[in-house]
Write a structure and sequence with these properties.
The protein is of the alpha/beta class and 290 residues long. The chain folds into two domains: 144 residues, Rossmann fold (3-Layer(aba) Sandwich), CATH 3.40.50.720; 139 residues, Dihydrodipicolinate Reductase, domain 2 (2-Layer Sandwich). The chain is built from ten helices and twelve strands. Helix 1 crosses helix 10 and helix 6 runs parallel beside helix 8.
Amino acid sequence: MTISVAVIGTGAIGMDLVSKIYHSSLLNCQLLAGRNKDSAGTRRAAQLGCPTSAGGIDAILAASEPFDVVFDATNAMSHAKHWELLRPLGTLLIDLTPSHLGKMIVPTVTGIDVLTERNVSLISCGGQASIPILHALSRHFRINDIEVVATVASDILGRATRINIDEYVETTQLALSTFTGVANTKAILNISPAVPPAMFRVTIFASIPGVTTEQITPVVTDAVEAVRGFSAGYSLTTLKVTEGRVSISLEVIASSNVLPEYAGNLDLINSAAIMVAEQYAHYRNKLESK
């Protein structure tokens, strides 16, 4: 049995979410709500038979029954308001903005048992790419400091992301420390104007005294394979160790019906969000079958 879901935000993230929901056997997209009735996301949702509205959060609240899940693909400031309004309804709110208001989720690290939480945060694309690797390393080695540099193509970066760059940095750094126990962390977001557009790449720098390439390689490759279980375009491109300084480069190629290949940042965080929603659907179905 499917559960009812809605998406707030009609940009590239919202458009890809609707497409992914359409191909899910567990999720039924019953509304895409935004402010721009003529956006590409609105047109795509209509083509797939998903109702649309330019009423934003008001359209979500006006539904005859609360949605089981709402994906928030707007911006960090709006998310705070959305959470305040949706909290009394019991809806699971999956946050794709860098607001860090809800419980931070990285599927291969935390698992996806969000059943006791009504607001869960997917942190950021850089966080989703780097934390599985860094968390795995932190379980085996002592890390002194971490720096994560994400590079995204300019023309896939929407207005909401651009106005949330400070929140992106703060939320990603908080998550890096939370999931590794390392106090000294730094997150950097590079917006590339390159033509053709740059692929989504994340480089991790970490100080791990005494570590060798032979020690680190199996830990990193296992973490990469776990992420590839739900995001097939995620891959390790380089791994170097020089006198305790570790450098790891990752690339994500989007596997999407509506996004270009270089939009791996959006594909990765959306795939994680869909995974959380589908696990919640499994839980709801088990309860109803008892």
